[in-house]
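Fig. S4 source data, part A: sequence.
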Amino acid sequence: MTTRYAKIVLTLALATFAFMVTFNNITDYGSNFAFVRHVLSMDTTFPDNAAMYRAITSPALWHAAYWLIIFGEGLTAVLLAYGALSLWRARKAEAVTFGRAKQWVVSGATVGFLVWFFGFMVVGGEWFLMWQSQTWNGQEPAFKFYMAILGVLIFVNQADNELA
């Protein structure tokens, strides 16, 4: 049971993290909106870089991108929270039932990985060259987030034994 409880608690911790990020982005919209605006407008990348044609300078698109990020973070929180609840409900069940309950954790971790790896590393980091910015570079925090998600996902997906 210890391993099952650990899987539940770690999933719940990820859900709480994703919820807090979502909550902070909604309640302090302007702080992280500035981050999105600067990354998308590429105004702090290396001067005269050849990729400036990628810059987005439309405030409407900045807001749309930010709400897409917030939606992804919120969806991650909901799916992981439901995953933790599903695991909790199946904690005393046979291994196959507990295994089926993991589908929500897998879904939540996948969405979270897409937000923090694909969104921040691929789109923000490489397409919009966020790595060139001294001020508006979120790659290191994003790395920490998606590595924590992957670690929990790997642990949760380890096979479970039947209970004694």
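Fig. S4 source data, part B ends here. DSSP finds six helices and no strands in the chain.
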